[in-house]
Design goal:
The protein contains 16 helices and 17 strands. By secondary structure, the protein is α/β, with parallel strands linked by helices. The protein folds into two domains: 2-124, Reverse transcriptase/Diguanylate cyclase domain (Alpha-Beta Plaits), CATH 3.30.70.270; 128-374, TIM Barrel, CATH 3.20.20.450. The termini are far apart. This is Diguanylate cyclase (GGDEF)-like protein. Residues 128-378 form the EAL domain. Pfam families: EAL, GGDEF.
Length: 381
């Protein structure tokens, strides 16, 4: 935000968010800023898990209300990690460390959410080095990683227009391991390029057999900073026979606004051959609606946290409507993620979303089940 709107606006946002926090907690509780954009909240006295849950939800909701600076509406996401005394520790150091572990899991779960610490989190993090070796072995073995596909629905007629490719890892010892855990490890250890190439090749190979349907694949910012990334994508398209126009690459807001020369060159080169670029989970990081006009992308994917509160939380419909209207005015398409109810489906269509995605239509399924989901392209019951 400092780079986009200037340091005064960045400082003002921090101050306003701090005021929102103070308005949520009880008298006597402590709110402290401990880093650039990091706060610690200490709830004093006896408090139930239910009360803590409610406070965390209000913190997440408060951050999702837009901030206004210089006439622009700015959206930010917040991630919260929670540790409880005496369950998770009795001293400040233990509680802060465990809250930080829970925060790590919140950040890697898509942001705009909160997570309570559990011992299993510590156990998983302690296995990180072991998991790195297991990931290398899985890439060589070729049978542990699988790509599942979730339908993307055309809002005009409820027919399947494409699929999003989502990676799954079935570990021979630990069973199903969440991407929220292993993708950050892949990024930190340099394995993300091999993992990303595996998913892209699998998805393009599958999509080459679909008639008139596209496939969307998530791309890490680390991959985009590789000067040769666009060339790798082109080679995979050529070897699989998939038309570039049938491929959509989903990037984070951070990657889409990264001004590094390699990122810009890769996005330019890919769009030049017809590959579509989408911003994933829009609204969970730093988001300025005013920047939509300048982004080098074709589609905005509205984060499920806004869709989840549609019709229940004041302002969510207005936020989605503002995103859709400005996206359309900027020549961009929109997809709403996390659609789970017919009420959300009808409301998002009324607002003008172009595409819809969520459990209402189908969960992610293995490739072998694609024909089953493709046979249900009609309106949900």
């Amino acid at each position: 935000m400092n780079d986009t709107l200037g340091h005064p606006s960045g400082d003002a946002l921090i101050r306003e968010f701090g005021q929102r926090l103070k308005a949520i907690v009880r008298q006597g509780d402590v709110v402290a800023r401990v880093g650039g954009d990091e706060f610690t909240v200490m709830l004093r006295g006896k408090v139930s898990v239910g009360e803590v849950d409610g406070i965390c939800q209000r913190i997440v909701d408060s951050a999702r209300r837009p901030f206004v600076f210089g006439g622009q509406e700015v959206f930010v996401g917040v991630s919260v990690g929670v540790a409880l005394a005496p369950r998770d520790g009795n001293d400040r150091v233990s509680l802060l460390r465990r809250a930080d572990v829970a925060l790590y899991f919140s950040k890697n779960s898509g942001r705009s959410r909160y997570t309570f610490f559990s011992e299993s989190m510590d156990q998983l993090l302690s296995r990180r080095q072991e998991m790195e070796g297991d990931m290398r072995a899985a890439l060589k073995a070729g049978n542990e990683f699988q790509v599942h596909y979730q339908p993307i629905i055309d809002a005009r007629d409820h027919r399947v227009k494409g699929y999003e490719a989502l990676l799954r890892w079935e570990h021979p010892k630990f069973g199903s391991i969440s991407p929220e855990l292993f993708i950050p490890i892949a990024e930190e250890t340099g394995l993300i390029e091999a993992v990303g190439a595996f998913v892209l090749r699998e998805a393009c190979t599958a999509a080459a057999e679909w008639s008139g349907k596209s496939v969307a694949v998530n791309v890490s910012g680390i991959e985009l900073r590789d000067e040769g990334y666009a060339a790798k994508v082109k080679n995979i398209l050529l070897s699989t026979g998939l038309s570039p126009q049938a491929l959509e690459l989903e990037v984070t807001e951070t990657a889409a606004t990264d001004e590094a020369s390699a990122v810009v060159a890769n996005l330019d080169a890919l769009r030049a051959i017809g590959v579509q670029i989408a911003i994933d989970d829009f609204g969970t990081g730093f988001s300025s609606l005013g920047r939509l006009r300048t982004l080098n992308v074709d589609r905005i994917k509205i984060d499920r946290s806004f869709v989840r509160g549609f019709g229940e939380k004041a302002g969510d419909e207005a936020i989605i409507r503002a995103i859709v209207e400005l996206a359309h005015a900027s020549g961009l398409k929109t997809t709403a993620e996390g659609v789970e109810t017919s009420f959300q489906d009808a409301g998002l269509i009324r607002i003008g979303c172009d595409s819809l995605q969520g459990f209402l239509y189908s969960k992610p399924v293995p490739l072998r089940d694609i024909e089953l989901t493709r046979s249900t392209d009609s309106s949900p019951g």
